[in-house]
Amino acid sequence: MPLAHTWSVALVGLEGHLVEVEADIAQGLPKTTLIGLPDASLSEARDRVRAAVVNSGEKFPDRKVTIGLSPATLPKTGSHYDVAIALSLLTAAGVVDPDSLRQTAIIGELGLDGRIREVRGALAMTLAAARAGFDRIVVPELNAGEARLVPGIEVYGVRSLRQVLALLRGIEIPDEAPPRAEPRLLSESLTRVPEVDLDDVIGQREGRRAIEAAAAGGHHLFLHGPPGSGKTMLAERLAGLMPDLTTDDSLEVSAVHSLAGLLTGDAELVVRPPFIAPHHTASMSSLVGGGTGMPRPGAISCAHRGVLFIDEAPEMHPLTLDTLRQPLESGYIEVHRSAAVAKFPARFMLVLAANPCPCGLSGTNHGICNCTPQVLARYRQRISGPIKDRIDIQRQILPAARGLSDDEPESTATVAARVNAARERQTHRYRDTAWILNSEVPGPVLRRDFPLDTTSQKLLEGLYSAGRITARGFDRVVRLAWTLADLEGIPQPTVDLTHQAFQLRSGEPLTPLTDTRPLKGLRA
User: Fold this and answer.
1) Could you give the CA distance from residue 299 to residue 308 in angstroms, rounded to a whole number?
2) Nearest Cα residue to 96 out of 58, 150, 62, 146
3) Whose C-alpha in 123, 146, 227, 344 is 20 to 30 A from the C-alpha of 139?
4) Residue 484: which residues within 8 A CB-CB, separation 6 or more?
5) pLDDT of amino acid 266
6) What is the pLDDT of residues 89-146, one digit of tens each?
7) What is the dihedral sign for C-alpha 34, 35, 36, 38?
8) Cis bond upstream, residue 71 (ω within 30)
9) Which residue, 283, 288, 291, 292, is CA-closest to 301?
C-alpha cells in the first residue's frame, strides 16, 4: 500500500485542529520530503523518524517518501507529530494494518532510539480529538494522566514506537524502561499558596470586607498601604474563600496548564481556583502570552478563573501593566503573531498591592518619608488611570493595633460559606443568561434587567454628575452593590449597600450613609 494516512492534532491557542498525516512511497531516489507548512522543529522530524524506525527493528523505505500534513494552509509547529508520521509511513510500507488506525488520533515526540517523549498540550489535544468523534488516542505515557481526564475517549499511554506497533498488531507489548520526565515547575508551585487561614490576620476589618466582596462577585482589588500592614496576607487568603471550579471550568483551566507545561504525568484536574503571583519584573510576553512561532499562554491565562496577584505593582513596567486593560474587560486575550492568532481564556481576578511611596513611609508614623512630592506623584502614576478605573475595590491597609481588637477573627471556612451562598444567589439570578458572577454582567444588561431602586439610582447619578465616578465606574459600583446584597442575603441592594459599594470602589472609609462626609462635593 504506497499511500496511507493517520491523524494528529494541531493547537492554535487552546483550539485544536485535526491534522491528517499522509505518507506516499513512490519510485525514485531515496529522499524524504515533508510538506504542509512545518516549522523548524517539525522539519527535523524526518531525521528523528528515520532513526527511530530503524532502531525499533523496522525497515525505512529506500525510495522517494513524501509526507503531507493537511490542511496545508494551517501552520504546524512542534514535535508531537513524530509518532503519527512514523505510523503513517509504516502503514504505507505495509508494516501496519490501516484498519488498526481507524478513529485513532496520535501524538508524541520520538527519540532516536524509538522512545516516545512527553509533549505539551496533551489535554487540549485530547479534548479536540474527543470532540471530533475519535474513539481513542495514543499519547506518551507521561501525558496519559492528563489525557485520561477527558471523558468519552480511550487513552493509550506508550513508552516507545515498539510498544505502539505491538499494540496495533495485537501482540504482547514489550517492556520498556520508564520514561524520564523533563524538569519543570509543578502546577502546585505556581497555583497554590501555603496552607493559610483568614483568622491569621489581626484586625483589618475593612480589608477583610474587601476580599470577601471580591471573592463573592469576582471583583478586581487594589490594596495599598505601608510595608508589613498585611496586604500580601490578605491577598494570599483570597483564593481560599472561592469555591471549587465547575467541571467545565476545571477542564478549561487544566487545558491551559497542560499547554503551559504545568501538568505532570500523574495529573489530576485543577479543581481549585489558581493563584498566580508573577514577580513585578515579569516581561510583557510572560504576562499575557506569546513567544516565537506559535504563541503560548501567559500568567493571566494560567490564572483563568482564579487570582492574579501582582505585588509591588508600581515597580512593574507601566506598559506591561497596561496590557491587562483589554483582558480585564473581555475575559480573554488574543496574541497575534505572523504564524497564527491564538486566543486564550483570561477571566481572572486581578489583585494589586502597592506601598504608598518608594520608601514606604509616606502617611505612617513609623518614620519620616524623604520622598519629594514629584517622586510621590511619579510613583503613584505608574499604575495608570485606565487600570485603576477597571478595579472595583480599592482599600488602604494600615498596620493593625495588636491587642486592641475585641472581635474574634473569622476563619476562612466561615467567610467562604458566605461567599459560596452569595455565588449561589448569583447563579440562580443569571441562570437564563451567559453570565455567572456579578462582575461579568454588562452594564446595559444590569441597568435594564436588574435595576437599582430609585433612591440608590439617584445617589449614583449624583456621584456621576459631581465627577466622583466615571461611566464605567457607575456600572462597576452597581455590580459591587449587587454583590454586597448577595452577601447579606437580600433580594436587591439597598441605598446603604450602594453607598458602601461606592466607598469600596473609591477607597474612602466605610462610614454609614447618615454621615454625609463621603458625599461632600456633590453638586445639586
Assistant:
1) 8
2) 58
3) 344
4) 213, 493, 497, 500, 501
5) 61
6) 999 999 999 999 999 999 999 999 999 999 989 999 999 999 999 999 999 999 998 8
7) positive
8) yes
9) 288
Kindly report the length of the chain. 524
Decide if 426 contacts 491 (C-beta within 8 A): no
Measured CA to CA, the distance from residue 497 to residue 152 in angstroms comes to 47
Residues paired with 104 in a beta bridge: 136
User: Is there a contact between 361 and 369 (Cβ–Cβ < 8 Å)?
Assistant: yes
Beta-bridge partners for 31: 64
- CA atoms of 7 and 3, how far apart (whole Å): 14
Q: What is the pTM of this model?
A: 0.86
Q: What is the mean pLDDT of residues 15-42?
A: 93
C-alpha cell at 381: 502614576
The DSSP secondary structure of 9-54, one letter per residue, reads EEEETTEEEEEEEEEEEESSSSEEEEESSB-HHHHTHHHHHHHHHH
The continuous run of DSSP H or E covering 127 comes out as helix 122-131
Query: In this predicted structure, what is the pLDDT of residue 258?
Result: 87
Q: Where are the beta strands (DSSP E) in 92-233?
A: 104-106, 109-110, 116-117, 136-140, 154-158, 221-224
pLDDT tens column, 388-405: 999 999 999 888 765 555
Q: Are 371 and 362 in contact (CB under 8 A)?
A: yes
| pLDDT for res 260 | 87
- 10 Å Cβ neighbour count for 443? 14
Give the 3-state secondary structure of 470-504.
CHHHHHHHHHHHHHHHHHHCCCCCCHHHHHHHHHH
Cell numbers representing residue 72 in the block: 496545508
- Decide: 386 and 322 in contact? Cβ < 8 Å: yes
Q: Which of 54-68, 195-209, 498-512 holds the top average pLDDT?
A: 54-68
User: Cα–Cα distance between 89 and 86 in angstroms, integer?
Assistant: 5
